Amino acid sequence: MKTTAMPSTSTPVAHNAMPPPSAASTARSSRVAPHSHIKGLGLTPEGLALPDGSGFIGQTNAREACSVVVELIKSRKFSGRALLLVGAPGTGKTALALAVSHELGVKVPFCPMVGSEVYSTEVKKTEVLAEAFRRAIGLRIKETKEVYEGEVTELTPAEAENPLSGYGKTVSHVIVGLKTVKGTKQLRLDPTIYEAMLKEKIVVGDVIYIEANTGAVKRVGRSDAYASSYDLESETYVPLPKGDVHKRKELVQDVTLGDLDAANARPQGGQDIMSVMGSLMKSGRTEVTEKLRKEVNKVVKGYVDQGVAEVVPGVVFIDEVHMLDIECFTYLNALLESPMAPTVILATNRGNAAVRGTTDVVSPHGIPVDLLDRCLIVKTDAYSREQIAKVVQLRANVEGLKLGPGVLERLAEEGERGSMRYAIQLLTPASILSGLAGRNQIEVDDIGEMNELFLDAKTSARNIGSDGGFDGGRM
């Protein structure tokens, strides 16, 4: 039986790592992910790691190293290399990769994957890697278009007798009045544009723009002059556009090379880059040929040379990279050397291990030496009891849970003895138990009972005898 933990209505224990969630946020049922609390690397302006910042606790050396990598990425000086995060399970390797993504900003593509994802029956292993790399390379297209923009003051369809039959009437044209801060203009437009307006549900008082060369209509929002009126539906209010009704406007659109590859695999409509953007595949998995990728690169290069587009290299994050085999590692070397390579972040918890796909090659972290030589390696450290306590308190704040006296110390002890993940995993089941007992906070007895019901990984491993059975009892 699945049980969903209900957020507590009581005030969570305060901690300077993160403010407690408001009543509005805790009242709404939402899924809390393992790294919901990570908001960045938590650095000072000088690039030094704060002991406790942006949801990160500890790992000061690793965070400062990642901050240097972030600066290298921003200055476009990290191509052809990779960042390798190594450390024991539960020491924050995935959190560091997500923090790097936050530091780079939402406009930089971030493509996470796990090493085992490449073993697919649909496409080749190397194709999965190539696709991930292409999805992590963004293309920012800047296009200047002639548009008519303003608040709709008039929307009058003009009807005429239907020339195809003697019955009924048809729309011959539509009169649209547009108003800006500078003035007003009345437009006489084709009936197809009127149909597009009906689809967009445009009414008088909406702010719209119409592309002069294509006739495409876009609703921006409701004019803020109507902000005092109340409707049942929430509405986005925008100010009255400035300048003339007829103007030249720069439009910026973001797309990835992976999107362009997929759209070109089954092209629809025109062949220029704008038509390709509007015909992205919705379903199905098609293997993209190297010839097609070269053609896409040629078109993209042409747009970049003209100053129409800008390439935005993103980040590919491959977790559990030791799961890749020797063929994938060799292909990774080739991808890193390509002129349009994104930043690559790898993570592993292995020490010396055999390289998958071989019988006699043992290498550090299960990665061939030639690829390892391309990596900047960052080590994550084990957490102290004090740091585990801070992380547990932070997760309790995120999940809206209140901890009673001595609970934090008990969970920190469990985290030090077992693992930090185990200590965090005890939080929500213990809150369910305290709720069943009619309490609004977790007590030490709840943790003790959870500890009897569940085992941590180390205890479970010790309990398994050499013959595959259990030696009985909890150690």
From TrEMBL:
Coiled coil: none annotated. Residues 1-38 are annotated as: Disordered. It is found in: Nucleus. Its main location: nucleus. InterPro entries: AAA+_ATPase (IPR003593), P-loop_NTPase (IPR027417), RuvB-like (IPR027238), RuvB-like_C (IPR041048), RuvBL1/2_DNA/RNA_bd_dom (IPR042487), TIP49_P-loop (IPR010339). Keywords: Activator, ATP-binding, Chromatin regulator, DNA damage, DNA repair, Helicase, Hydrolase, Nucleotide-binding, Nucleus, Transcription, Transcription regulation. Its EC number is 3.6.4.12. It catalyses: ATP + H2O = ADP + phosphate + H(+). The keyword Transmembrane helix does not apply. Residues 23-33 have a biased composition (Low complexity). GO terms for biological process: chromatin organization; DNA repair. It comes from the Eukaryota. It is an enzyme of class 3 (hydrolase). SUPFAM superfamilies: P-loop containing nucleoside triphosphate hydrolases. Residues 79-369 form the AAA+ ATPase domain. Residues 1-13 have a biased composition (Polar residues). GO terms for cellular component: nucleus. SMART domains: AAA (SM00382). One of its GO terms (molecular function) is DNA helicase activity. DNA helicase participates in several chromatin remodeling complexes, including the SWR1 and the INO80 complexes. DNA helicase which participates in several chromatin remodeling complexes, including the SWR1 and the INO80 complexes. The SWR1 complex mediates the ATP-dependent exchange of histone H2A for the H2A variant HZT1 leading to transcriptional regulation of selected genes by chromatin remodeling. The INO80 complex remodels chromatin by shifting nucleosomes and is involved in DNA repair. Also involved in pre-rRNA processing. Belongs to the RuvB family. This is RuvB-like helicase. It comes from Scleroderma citrinum Foug A. The lineage of its organism: Eukaryota, Fungi, Dikarya, Basidiomycota, Agaricomycotina.
